[in-house]
């Protein structure tokens, strides 16, 4: 029997508590994987928050470039330009929801139920692989948004950005599906 697995034998339980310092065991590979998972998801959330900030700047630049000052003769802004502004705002909202979803993604708890049904280390490694893909895609999305200009947004709109956001959302759903227990 490995000392990492929970035991029902009182002597082994006491030994496990002594080796783990009656708390978190920094040397346990499962605990390292759990901490790495949190760090990797934080990195993905950071990239998305940077993309949200870049979209806010793009919105301001677009407004300055494509919405002329309102006059008495022309009191309303152009409707197509306002539609593009609303697209930017919708993209910001979608990224904000995705960022908070990624930040709050769950990791399996550390209890005996998980030990009975799954191999925790293998599961955490799979989750870490999902999260690394999340980071790559989040950083690609940020790079795309950071290089957008108001002219590009005016000509191409939000199609590619929406597709990238949907891919990230789908990846997050697949990660959550992995945690569902198949009995």
Describe the structure.
The protein has 183 residues and is mainly alpha-helical. The chain has a single domain, classed as Four Helix Bundle (Hemerythrin (Met), subunit A) (Up-down Bundle), CATH 1.20.120. 73% of the residues lie in helices and 0% in strands. It is built from 7 helices and no strands. It has helices at 10-19, 29-66, 79-103, 112-117, 120-146, 150-156, 159-179. Helix 2 runs antiparallel to helix 3, helix 2 (29-66) runs parallel beside helix 5 and helix 5 packs antiparallel against helix 7 (159-179). The longest helix has 38 residues, at 29-66. It is rod-shaped. The chain starts with 9 loop residues before the first helix and ends with a helix. The model has no long low-confidence stretch (mean pLDDT 83).
What attributes characterize this protein structure?
183 residues; mainly alpha; Four Helix Bundle (Hemerythrin (Met), subunit A); 7 helices
At a glance:
This protein has about 180 residues and is an all-alpha fold.
Q: Any idea what the shape is? A: rod-shaped
User: What string gives the helices and strands in order?
Assistant: HHHHHHH
Task: Determine and state the CATH class.
Answer: Mainly Alpha
Quickly give the CATH architecture: Up-down Bundle
Mean pLDDT: 83
Number of helices: 7
Q: List how many beta strands DSSP finds.
A: 0
Q: How large is the radius of gyration?
A: 23 Å
Bin the strand percentage.
under 5%
- What is the CATH fold-level name? Four Helix Bundle (Hemerythrin (Met), subunit A)
| Biggest pleated sheet | none
Structurally, the number of domains stands at 1
Structural class label: mainly alpha
Estimate percent helicity.
Answer: over 70%
Distance between the termini: 25 Å
Unreliable parts:
none
Oligomeric grouping of the chains: single chain
